Amino acid sequence: ERSFACTECGKCFNQKQQVINHQYVHTGKRPFACMECGKCFNRKEQIINHQRMHTGNRPFSCTDCGKRFLVKSSLNRHKQIHSDTNHFSCDECGEGFRTKAFLVAHQEIHTGAKAFPCPDCGKSFNWKGSLDRHKLIHTGANQFSCAECGERFRAKSSLIAHQEIHTGKKAFSCADCGKSFNWKGSLLSHRSIHTGERPFACTECGKSFRLKSHLLSHQYVH
């Protein structure tokens, strides 16, 4: 039985503190402020997780490879890399995926829907992060600056990749074989060699591919 109800929307909770935290959704109040940067949060656990960005503390460690994470949910997602289980299955074709995000991206093959449209030009994207990067085109903001040479970039990922010119470091490393990459997307494409995952399926014949470029080349057959 859930005995604590929100007076605004009627949603019920097991504990009084849960309903107090929930009511901030209606009031817009963010009572927990970070002493380092001033960013405010609805819940205490959110500010605790955020403050680890400033301290560098990553308390959640993978028992398989030792990689550490700020929050437990990130560790749980990461552990699926080491698992052979595909927990998320497509209702249309039955193909299985290790993460819900991969399943959602795959389902757009069947629906054609892209969930994140740009309010300025209408272009749609599969991922919110892709939309956020795209919107910088409209604002013209080059907000990420290289400390070495002063060159500025719209996206943080572009800055990180650029900085490797100065450091020679490749930031994204494969947990299976140790090969390193400049871009996270390149690492994800490489990872499919180890997982066997083929997320890009042809809508004409159903054949699947590791890389989108391979799918596009194949589609010329049809």
From TrEMBL:
List where in the cell it is found. Answer: Nucleus
Entry's PROSITE patterns?
ZINC_FINGER_C2H2_1, ZINC_FINGER_C2H2_2
Would you name any one GO CC term?
nucleus
SUPFAM superfamilies, per database record: beta-beta-alpha zinc fingers
Keywords, A to Z? DNA-binding, Metal-binding, Nucleus, Repeat, Transcription, Transcription regulation, Zinc, Zinc-finger
- GO MF annotations for this entry? DNA-binding transcription factor activity, RNA polymerase II-specific; RNA polymerase II transcription regulatory region sequence-specific DNA binding; zinc ion binding
Q: Give the family, as the similarity comment puts it.
A: Belongs to the krueppel C2H2-type zinc-finger protein family.
The protein depicted here goes by the name: Zinc finger protein 84
Organism per entry: Cuculus canorus
